Every structure is written in structure tokens, then in C-alpha cells.
Amino acid sequence: MTAIEARFPLGAALTLDLLDADPYAALARLREHEPVSWVPVLDGWLVTRRDLCIEVMRDAVRFTVDDPRFSTAQVVGPSMLSLDGDEHRRHRDPFAWGLRKPEVAERYTDAVEREARRLVQALAPAGRAEIRRDLAGPLAVNVVAGALGLQGTEPGVLLGWYDEIVAAVDRVSVGGEIGEEARAAMDALARHVGQTIEHGDGVLPGATSTLAQSEVVSNAAVMMFGGIETSEGMTTSLFWHLLSDPGQWAAVAADQSLAANAVEESLRLEPAAGRVDRYATADVELGGAAIRNGDLVIVSLTAANRDPATFPDPDVFDSARPNARAHLAFAQGPHACVGLHLARLETRSALTAVLEGWPDLAIEPDSTPPSGVIFRKPRSLRVRWDAPGPGTPHASSV
Fold first, then answer.
1. What does pTM read for this prediction?
2. Helical H segments across 34-154, by residue range
3. How many C-beta atoms lie closer than 10 Å to residue 69's C-beta?
4. What is the Cα–Cα distance from 207 to 137, expressed in whole angstroms?
5. What is the pLDDT of residue 218?
6. When comparing pLDDT for 392 and 383, which is higher?
7. Cα-only R_g, the chain
8. Exposure letters 284-295 (e unless 16+ CB within 10 A, then b)
9. Which among 175, 151, 171 has a CA at the least distance from the CA of 163?
10. Helix (H/G/I), strand (E/B), else coil: 99
11. Contact call for residues 378 and 237 (beta carbons, < 8 A)
12. Which tens digit of pLDDT belongs to each residue from 179-226?
């Protein structure tokens, strides 16, 4: 054991398998005893206490995303995700403007709610579904296509581009190559973005007032990545939490005013992105740890959201928790999620549509709990309900 591993034995004991499957107890021990700990398996510092996580995310001077090791930037190019300061604002602002809360409410509410109802109604006669692949994933793809003005692209084609880009980011993050398939996906996305800029309207053509076309493409890839991956996970985990506790499901079904807070509580208990990465720009002390210039600093949103100093009984899902919205699932500081209002609308719309369209919903026993080192969600969430008989009108059409 090295000297630094001896200084942080709890961090040294962590394994990728533990972080993937059931990290909560280990993260709680770290938060109490080693709130900033060196974790060899991650080759970086893991921050688990909520106040320290906020400090790192808000301080883009000492803790930056602008580093050549940032894997997403290697695949898609510089974007709002991998820049700080004035350049970050130049890339982010054209997209953020149209995704503010009032704009989302006005421009997207009807379309997102309609799409959620359409998917639920199409599945209703079957009486069976897998939430992630049949509802959450298709909804996320269609919503992000609409938000980016890519309605002319088949959802399956868009999802194919996304899959290749995500796979490349995963490969690069462990020292692999981008790959020809991912390069082809980026080229295809670039062509489609170019066509949208030339012939369409909305956020992508508008972004060219401050961004080069290649920069618009990079940010479109980032928006697609975030809009599909994290929204799919966010929706799937909400149904996991509610259906795993029949009392919570019954409470929300009886009082749908709890739906919005249930979304926040699910985000608290299981953020779709379990961590965000930063790089130290100088030698710095944080939580008793001496971090060196250039070190990777990993903010554990999963751990911060279960900090008992802020959330009593932090491992319990409570759809009526009064401070559920104090979670950090959308991050904080300059890199707070640009699409948080649209993501909330999407997940809430899926819940409302299912409550109306799938009566007596129950979880199947072969469903799997959330997992993932970085992006956490149930990999399979199978459900069943009472399907309407022939000639029976659908609940939402009565």
C-alpha cells in the first residue's frame, strides 16, 4: 500500500463493482470519515460531502473542465461541457436562452405531454412494457429531437448516432480509440445540423450568430447526449422508486399534486449522472486533503444527495419530503444542467400519462435496481397493468 492509500484506506478499498452496483454504504462511510478521498480505482479524488461538492462545482477557477483529458471533448470537440469562463458562456448561452423555465413552459409543454400520452396509449393494449426501452428512451429521443429542431430525423437514426458517440466517449475514457463508427456518426450529425441551420429555424440556426457551424455541431452532440442519457435514466428511476414501494405509488396516484415533488425526490435518491469531473488548476486543500495541480477531482452527486446533514433518513424515498428539491442532481455553478426544466417536464409528463393510462400498475420481479459507475439507472424495469378489453375506451379519451 502506498503512502497516499494508507492515508485514505476507505478510498483505497473501493472497487468498480461496488461503485456500480451498490455504492451507498461505502459512500456514506467516505462522507463521514474521508469526505475527500484518494480512490486509486478512479485515479482521482472523490468528494462525497454535500457542502464540499457544491464548493468544487461553483469554483471554475480552481476546478475546471477545460482539460485535454476530458473524454467527451476528444470525441465531439470543444463545447459548453468542456470549456470554462467566457468561452463556456459563448457556447452555452445560445442553447440556454430557449431552455429557461418560462420558455420551456410555453414552447414545449403541450408537445411533450402529447408525446408521453401517445407512447402510453400505444402500449396500453399490451398490458406489459419495459419502462426504459419502451417509454423513457423513446420519449427522451423525441423530446431532444424536437428541442434541437431535428424533427426530420427518424428517432432510430438519431438513437444510432447517440449510441456510437456514447460508446466512443466510454472507450476514450479508459484509453481507447474513438473509432470509425463514432466518426461516421459525428459526420452524419454534422450534415443534419448543417441542413437544419440552412433550412430550419429554432435553436440551431440561432446559435450561428455567435458560434461557428462546427461548434454548433459539438454542442448539438452534447445536448443530444445529455437529453437522451440522463432523461431516460431520470424517468426510469422515478418509476423504480415509486413502484418499489406500493405505498408511495398509491400516495401519488391518489394525489397527483405530489408528482412534481416525487420527481425531485427520485433525482435526490438516484441522480441519473452520479458524478461530475473537474481538474485542479493549482495545488489546493479541500476537506483535509492536499490536492495537486492537475489532479482529477470527482464530485459524487450520489453521495451528496444522501448527506444526512441536509436530508434526514437519506436512504428513504419520500415523495412528500419537504426539501427534496435541494438535491444536486442537475449540478450547480456554471455547468448546471442547461436542460433541467425540459427534463423535469419530460419525466413529470411520463408519470402523469402512465397514471392515467395504465391502471393497477405493478413492477415485475425480474426488474433490476439502478446501477452504473457514472450514469445510473435500472437497466431493465418491466411492469404490467390491466389492459383494456376490446372496445374499451382508453382512460384519457373518456
1. 0.92
2. 50-58, 71-76, 85-96, 101-123, 137-148
3. 12
4. 27
5. 94
6. 383
7. 21
8. bebbebebeeeb
9. 171
10. helix
11. yes
12. 999 999 999 999 988 988 888 777 888 899 899 999 999 999 999 888
CA 341 distance to own-chain centroid:
12
Identify the burial level of 156 via C-beta atoms within 10 angstroms of its C-beta, where 0-12 means exposed, 13-18 middle and 19 or more buried. exposed
Q: The C-alpha cell of 269 is what? A: 435518491
| Residue entry with cell 446533514 | 309
CA gap 348, 355 in Å, rounded: 11
The Cα 317–Cα 320 span in angstroms is: 9
Bridge partners for 37 per DSSP: 46
Q: Are 359 and 386 in contact (CB under 8 A)?
A: yes
Distant-in-sequence contacts of 249-252, Cβ < 8 A, 24+ apart: 249/361, 251/319, 251/320, 252/319, 252/351, 252/355
Name the grid cell of 390. 376490446
Q: Is residue 248 a contact partner of residue 108, using CB atoms and an 8 Å limit?
A: no
Secondary-structure percent of the chain, ordered helix, strand, coil, rounded to 5:
60, 10, 30
Q: 284: helix, coil or strand? A: strand
Q: Which amino acid is at 309?
A: A
- Please name which of 87, 53, 59, 61 lies closest in space to residue 73, comparing C-alpha atoms: 87
Asked if 83 contacts 66 with a C-beta cutoff of 8 angstroms, the reply is yes
Instruction: Report yes or no: 256 and 232 within 8 Å, Cβ to Cβ.
Output: no
